[in-house]
Amino acid sequence: MSITRRSVLKGGAAVTATAAAGFPHIFVKNLNQAWGAPAWVKEGEPIKVGVLFSQTGNLAVVENDSTNVVLYAIEEINKNGGVMGTPIEPVVVDAKSDIKVYSEKISELILRDRVVSVFGGYTSASRRAVMPIVFARDHLFYYPTCYEGRECMQNVICTGPLANQHSYDLIPFMVENFGPKVYLIGSNYIWPKESNKNAKVWLERVGGEVVGEDYVPLGGSEFTPIFNKVRQQEPDFIFSTVVGDSDIALHKQFKQEGFNVDTMPIAALTTGEIEIRAMGAEFGAGHFLSAPYFQTLDNPTNQKFVENYLGSKYGTGGVTHYNMEETYLSVYAWKYGLEKAIEQAGWDGVTPRLIRDVSGGIRIEDDISPEGLIWIDPDNFNAWLKPKIGQCQSDGQFKIVKAADEHVAPDPFSIYPERGVCKADGLHTEDGKVLKNVL
Amino acid sequence: MESQNIYHNKTAQWLSYLVVFVGLAFLPTFIDPFTLNQFSRYAVLAMLAVSVSLVWGFGGILSLGQGIAFGLAAYGMGMTMQMQFQDPESNPIPSFMLTNELSELPGLWVPFWNTEVGLLLALAVPTVFFVIFGALMFQARVAGAFVAIMTLAMLAAWYSMAYDMQPFTAGFNGISPPLPFDWLGVSFDPYSPITYWVALGLLAFVVLASKLVLQSKFGLIIQAIRDDAERVRFVGYNVAFYQVVIFAMSGFIAAIAGITWVMLTQYVSPVLLEVQFSIAMVIWAAVGGRLSLMGAMIGAFLVNGMQSYVGDAFQSTWLLIIGGLFILVVRFLPKGIAGLIETGLGYVPIGRRRSDSMSSNPARAAE
Amino acid sequence: MSVHDFWTPFALEPFLNALIVGLSIASIWLVAALGLTIIYGTMGVINMAHGEFIMLGAYSTYVLQSYLGFPFLLCLPAAFFIVAGFGWVIEKVLIRHLYQRPLDTLLATWGVSLVLIQGVRLVFGGEPQYVGVPTWLDSAMQIGFINLAWLRVFIIVVSGLMVLLTWWILFRTVTGVRIRAVMQNKEMAASFGINANQVYSITFAYGAGVAGVAGALFGAFKSLFPDMGSGYIVEAFLVVVVGGGQLIGSVFSAGLMGEMGSVFSYFTNDTFARFVLFTLIVVFLRFRPQGLISEAMTRR
Description:
The complex is a heterotrimer. Chain A is an alpha/beta fold. Chain A has 2 domains: 4-161 and 304-376, Response regulator (Rossmann fold, 3-Layer(aba) Sandwich); 164-291 and 389-418, Response regulator (Rossmann fold, 3-Layer(aba) Sandwich), CATH 3.40.50.2300. Helix content of chain A is 38%, strand content 18%. Chain A contains 15 helices and 19 strands. By secondary structure, chain B is mostly helical. Chain B contains 16 helices and 2 strands. Chain B has helices spanning 10-25, 33-58, 66-85, 95-98, 115-139, 145-164, 166-169, 193-215, 217-227, 229-235, 239-265, 275-288, 293-313, 318-332, 336-346, 362-366; strands spanning 181-183, 186-188. The longest helix of chain B is centred in the last third of the chain and has 27 residues, at 239-265. Chain C is built from 12 helices and 2 strands. Chain C has helices at residues 3-6, 12-43, 50-68, 72-93, 102-124, 150-172, 174-184, 186-191, 196-218, 230-242, 247-267, 270-287; strands spanning 140-143, 146-149. Chain C has a two-stranded antiparallel ribbon. In chain C, helix 2 (12-43) runs antiparallel to helix 9, helix 3 (50-68) packs parallel to helix 5 and helix 3 (50-68) crosses helix 9 (196-218). The chains are: A alpha/beta, B mainly alpha, C mainly alpha. Chains in contact: A-B, A-C, B-C. At the A-C interface, helix 3, strand 8, helix 9, helix 10 and helix 11 of A face helix 2, helix 6, helix 11 and helix 12 of C.
């Protein structure tokens, strides 16, 4: 397997190669069809996919693992015969934790490298920044982590939990075990706000009550004013959607402010294995996390995954976590989609959009998926999965205290039923229209 | 004034601009759409570097808040493009608002139904803001590092506002209009040569207009203020007025850049208002040469080009390289690459005496 | 959104607590800005790498603690000397040559900050690290309705001590006399046999060292990562500029800004509080560009 990295030389080569095509092609809007462009995939010729994560900068802490696990999955697939005998070639680029670079690199992957699909992103901002070209070229983007939903796009497949799945079990569980009063703390952006809206819906069902709601600036590390209000309101638990280093500051200051984790724990959607490692297990112990995957999940596939991954050259981080596992699954979702597309239209007929269209209903069985069976919803192209609740132990690992009995459906507009229903061809509104690429 | 450096020759200067812009205009004939889009982006960033060169190199005002104008204009353009996508009858409200407790289009957004009004606002709001902000600072005779800090604080304030006003700005996720900008019957596909020419044309306009302004009497007074504001004030000029004008001009240029940027990327988010980005603009101008519009422009192309191409090869050391380069430039080459060229051309003998004194020490020219 | 959602209703006890929280936030701002005040107030150098000095202080604590097993309290003075060393070198190699060009020092130190961030990232990796604190700092003080983490009390005390120490050095020692002399008139001071260059080196190193102590303290309540310092730079500058570059001015401005920030964020939210604060500062500087305490008001 060769990993293509960008270099000056390659850029130069591309310039000369495309120069041959000459002037007028640029006026043609859809390059691919108009010029009888070469097939996206050819049997026996390495299949190019884009890997667009940050390897440098502050997002790299998480996204390095994403790059690694995509490469690991591709290596694994190639070892087992690739896609119907044809190997996969990842084109890895570095988005440098800069939103502006995401939008530059995605067009490089799509236009210059002609990858058939792209895996990328960890933040909603980066997802939205890459969308214009993905829409314009009818391409395919795999967004492999949790997000807020309420989008209905025809060129994206997502393998992480939506807001409606994420806290589905967590809120009832916390209310039942600790009491009805909850204080919501989040980072100040859209995903936490949407997650909190969902949480309020679940709270209402089980008779819970919001006693306070606060947001800190991204990267903010000062929680004393908020804890001052928390002390006044005396909630039974805290529901946290604080991300990144703020999350670490939250947990540290929680303990330093003298709060008791046994009587008022933090139930989080974000505090996974890496965050715990970064704050020190003593600050994480006792708190709760809802996620579809934990490193400690007790099944043979996961044990094999943890062992093989951490034993490979990619497993330098020392832990596996939910974001990583969701990214791993997205590569398999893509592989199955591509195989189905090839069966349907032959190698020459495969387009990124076709892969997406045939991906509805694709199942990743529990012999591959460490979190157990998941499948892609044929309408909104998010994943059906089973959220689980873990409690952090003093060794920094989680003990699973509850797993959903059945799969929870992804529903991007669960709390906005008036917006319509997301189907494969767009958002069907109440007045009978179909809106494409709603974001 | 016995220097015969061709660098200071006005005709030579205009000729070099002509060569560069005409050369760049032919770029679409031999590069692919992706690279073309990349060059369009560099052109926008070059406008920002020119705006920094204008206000800092010539005006002596170190503004770390160019991102304010850039970002505000970008939001204006993003809103305009988003409203082009919406339909007054069937789909009147951007999707993100419906999930932010807004059931009708907020008044702030209403003017953007009209593309011309939207464009006008995108240019006017940042410029007017710069006029007010500039008047606030320069009438109080704030100068030097204090201007830098105040612009920085203002930028930070706008940044936090942009992501906090989620119902209006879509917060950190940003606004991504799904379709290219459409105006006067032309769809400005970001990867088409037309869009590239628009970007390049605007860059040329910005550079040449700035050049003309700097060669005028107004430009000479501005440079005199940079060199010694007290003396100019003593002579009887209203220093604050001149400073406000040059500050607003640089804001206007940054606003043009902001509009063009969104046309190229179809995406606006608070990152455009980040402190690091605004300081990066200063870096481009400094590396290229703050005392030369062309130099600043080249600095932007060079640093960003290196970031795109060399950056990946030196992944983890890239910031070290750019930081180190910047230190070296500041320490040893305060006039940047343009200064190097100036020195280099100084060794080229030419026949006639220099007839004007453009950029090396314009204060003397003002005397 | 109703008014009630946005504004927290007033209640006395939490409001008093908010004032105490304000004091704690103020002490953090003060610690963050103290080094900058010294360097700016004395030398007129705008040191954009100040945040990275804070970061270096935090990382030195991390290294001393994790690799050499230093206790946390001992890490504070150690961080001072390590970062002071860095500052001393940077002054000798770079800042020294730019005294004639104050705006350029601003830019050059920005370059230094990029290099330091990436250097640390190369050595320690980008992932967050953490610093452990003694258990007695890991709980909260509770007196009546007043609640404050011991760590915050500790930071308030340390920041107070550092201000006192700096004041003592400036106004009660021979070095201080020299520093103040150079501050007022470098040439005149030199003609009296004061080695101005040496004074600058010492001042810069001292300011850097104080930033290092700040970093060692901050590591205790948040995580360490290479660009943790960039979050402090704007706030720290505002404290210094509002304070007029004077030691006492910074104490007042940090106090004022901390309290205002805390009270605003008690009534509304954190982000909005920041916006109001920054805007107020810009307006304040319009009417009083010399800051709260101008040079004329302090003893010379």
